[in-house]
Amino acid sequence: MPSVHRQGGTRRWLVEELGEIANLDRVTEHRDQEGAAGETEPTVRLDGVSKHFGDLIAVRDLDLDIGRGEFFTLLGPSGCGKTTTLRMVAGFEDPTAGRVLIDGQDVAGLPSYKRPANTVFQSYALFPHLSVGDNVAFGLRRKKVPKHEVTERVAAELERVGLAAEINRRPSQLSGGQQQRVALARALVNLPKVLLLDEPLGALDLKLRKGLQLELKRIQRDVGITFVYVTHDQEEALTMSDRIAVMNLGRVEQVADPEDVYERPETTFVAGFIGVSNLMPATVEAGGVHLDNGPSVPAAQNGFRPGERCQAVVRPEKLHINRIDEASDGSLPSVEGTVESSVYLGTSTQIVVEIGGDVRMTVLHPNASEAERQRLPGGGSRVKLSWHPDHMHLVRESRAGSQAAAQEAPGRDLTKPEGEEK
Ligand code: ATP
């Protein structure tokens, strides 16, 4: 989302957003060019892209292919470089190194209004004095599209976003969610090859946000246009995306579909950012791992070799919890620990268990039966945590955390806290 320090702050962003509106008429329509590029060509390719702001490295050496018709999400914490990446595709920033290709064309030096891309911002940026219909028609009219076609396309797009009945209203007469749908219709009516969305639901309340997430996904499937979506909200990313790139300190840590990112994270950062960081330090051995805080347990090797250090992840909902003296399935791998806290969360109960060496595991137990919930062990209880071997996954330390990564590039290194770079 826009931040004030960015060269001229809010004013510059406003100019960009209004510039984006004014240039809606110049977006190349992909309908006319279907088949011009090979069907297998990615819509967006980032090839070794880096972005430095002075001595700060915001994005480093990014390689990404975003396929045709994909809903692709850049996910990561504030400041990890998501927006900067999106802005380089849009043409609002130039890469310091590397190439951006849209539909096979290197767009270096091409201003944003000449790129076959539209951006939807968090702040809608609608013309307040124009009706909903005129806002959506704006680009088509500027392009001198025949009147009857404008009417048809605007009506179809408003129908798609569920605002056909609001065509004559002004933006001020609409809710935030409705205004964002108008912004979406206004971008989609131009049939860009790629739609760039920068936290478009960020200003909406949670309930509306959840509704719109599903609707955005439906709309994207319907139009078949490639969406590149920026968010820091992991649930939003998991709900909507075909694939997710998880970013950390200017790097992509993993690109995968939502299930893989959640079930099979590749690094400690991904395991912790998507969901609860349930990590047990371990040493790999033949057929499994030896847990620092427990026994040897079976695990898929995931490319590790015996003797290597790793972290073993088990998601909270996959852990079973039993009192130590309670009968449980002895064939399952398990560790022992002490309950630190137990919190009622409505649909589930969250229990934090210390398994020794300051390692904590979180268990989520569904509150399906009141009697069962009453029997859950409370604070101080000695317990056994167990899991199915398929539900344990071995991950590496994040590259961003390693010494090697810190030494790779000149300039201020975001992989270390300020003042500790040397
Ligand atoms: P957020 O979700 O908070 O917007 P983000 O992941 O999108 O975060 P970016 O906005 O891409 O992150 O910023 C990445 C880093 O680059 C941050 O440290 C940010 O302060 C810095 N940065 C971004 N734009 C500029 C700029 N124009 N000048 C200087 N530094 C910048």
Please outline the helices and strands.
Layout lengths: L8 H14 L7 H4 L10 E10 L2 E11 L4 E5 L6 H9 L6 E6 L2 E2 L10 E4 L11 H11 L4 H14 L15 H13 L5 E5 L7 H18 L2 E6 L2 H7 L2 E6 L2 E6 L1 H6 L4 H6 L5 E7 L2 E4 L4 E3 L10 E5 L6 E4 L10 E11 L3 E7 L5 E7 L3 H5 L7 E5 L6 E3 L7 H6 L14
Parallel strand pairs: 3-8, 3-9, 6-7, 7-8
Antiparallel strand pairs: 1-2, 1-4, 4-5, 9-10, 11-12, 11-14, 12-13, 14-20, 15-19, 16-17, 16-19, 17-18
The site of adenosine-5'-triphosphate has 15 residues, from strand 2 and helix 3.
Description:
This protein has 422 residues and is of the alpha+beta class. It folds into 2 domains: 9-263, Rossmann fold (3-Layer(aba) Sandwich), CATH 3.40.50; 281-394, OB fold (Dihydrolipoamide Acetyltransferase, E2P), CATH 2.40.50. It is built from 12 helices and 20 strands. It has a 6-stranded mixed sheet, with helices on both faces. A 5-stranded antiparallel sheet has the order 13-12-11-14-20. Helix 5 (147-160) crosses helix 6.
Give structural attributes.
422 residues; alpha+beta; Rossmann fold; OB fold (Dihydrolipoamide Acetyltransferase, E2P); 6-stranded mixed sheet; 5-stranded antiparallel sheet; 12 helices; 28% strand; globular; disordered N terminus; disordered C terminus; binds adenosine-5'-triphosphate
Q: Based on DSSP secondary structure assignment, what is the total number of beta strands?
A: 20
Low-confidence stretches: 1-15, 25-37, 402-422
Report mean pLDDT, rounded to a whole number: 85
Report the total helices: 12
Strand order in space, largest sheet = 6-7-8-3-9-10
* Class from helix and strand fractions: alpha+beta
**How many angstroms does the end-to-end distance come to?**
31 Å
CATH architecture heading of the largest domain: 3-Layer(aba) Sandwich
Characterize the main sheet: 6 strands, mixed
The helix content, as a percent range, equals 25-40%
CATH topology of the largest domain: Rossmann fold
The distinct ligands, each listed once, are:
adenosine-5'-triphosphate
Relative strand content:
25-35%
CATH class of the largest domain: Alpha Beta
Rg on CA atoms, Å: 25 Å
What is the fourth-level CATH superfamily of the largest domain?
P-loop containing nucleotide triphosphate hydrolases
Based on Cα principal axes, name the global outline.
globular
Domains, number: 2
